[in-house]
Automatic annotation (TrEMBL):
Domain of life according to the entry: Bacteria
Source organism: Bosea thiooxidans
Name used for this protein in its record: Lipoprotein
Length: 263
């Protein structure tokens, strides 16, 4: 069962209309963005200015928590590192990649992403390989690439969680914090905590997708290379566990850990 973010009343009744216009009118701009390292869009007017503002308005229009605070260096890096895990596992999933891109910017809700574990297998088998071993090798390489990036993401997340703890203690204890800063401060903590939840959800989806691909490869093209791929998936599971069990700030309340990130 999924849990959405606490609803935030809109202060400006025009925001839903503005967000809808931006969301529909700028989709094509997202789809034409050039790609940088790890598949992330290179810095452009779209990625640096238009997408963040459009995403903020769209999230607010859906009743999600949205903070206007500037991102800290660690918060910005956390979002960059999350990119790998929230995108489809295979570059040939072009449409799903664009959907995930728009979810990453918050223009679309994460519920728009595919939950079909067969997506990766279909993309993998649509490629031309010299032998069945090449398909198993590609599977193992994708799994290992995910595993190697989890540690840096977790370290980044721990720094953000620690600073959020300081942020909220200051909000609660200092009379110098303006009343108008308290709500966006909590919204930012929810956004950060929710991002970790979202990455964990998509990691779980990737693992299930990799297992689906491995099982069906074995059925179609049995190979001794399957052992290497299976070990890689097991190692990925072991690496993901500490991340998804790390203590957070309970921003959602009552110890609840929502399955879907919407912030």
């Amino acid at each position: 069962m999924t849990r959405g973010l606490p609803e935030k009343p809109l202060r400006d009744g025009r925001r839903p209309r503005i967000a809808l216009a931006l969301s529909s009118g700028l989709v094509l701009a997202a789809c034409t963005a050039t790609q940088g390292d790890l598949g992330r869009p290179r810095p452009t007017v779209w990625s640096q200015l238009i997408a963040p503002e459009s995403g903020f308005l769209s999230a607010a229009a859906r009743g999600e928590q949205a903070s206007y605070f500037r991102l800290t260096d660690d918060e910005e890096q956390l979002r960059d590192r999350a990119w790998r895990f929230v995108m489809p596992g295979h570059e040939r999933s072009v449409f799903q990649g664009e959907v995930s891109n728009l979810a990453h910017t918050r223009i679309l809700p994460v519920s728009a992403q595919s939950t079909d574990v067969s997506d990766y297998f279909r993309a993998l088998t649509s490629m031309s390989f010299a032998s069945q071993a090449s398909r198993y090798n590609r599977l193992a390489e994708d799994v290992n690439a995910d595993r190697l990036l989890i540690g840096p993401f977790r370290a980044n997340a721990m720094r953000v969680v620690s600073m959020d703890r300081v942020r909220m203690r200051t909000v609660e204890a200092s009379p110098d914090v303006a009343a108008g800063k308290q709500e966006p401060a909590l919204a930012r903590v929810i956004e950060n905590e929710g991002l970790v939840f979202w990455v964990c959800e998509r990691l779980d989806f990737r693992i299930r997708s990799y297992r689906y691909a491995l099982t069906n490869l074995v059925v179609e093209m049995p190979s001794r290379e399957a052992v290497r791929a299976e070990r890689a998936i097991m190692a990925l599971e072991a690496e993901a566990l500490p991340l998804c069990q790390m203590p957070l700030n309970d921003a959602f309340g009552e110890g609840k850990r929502p399955v879907v990130y919407k912030g």
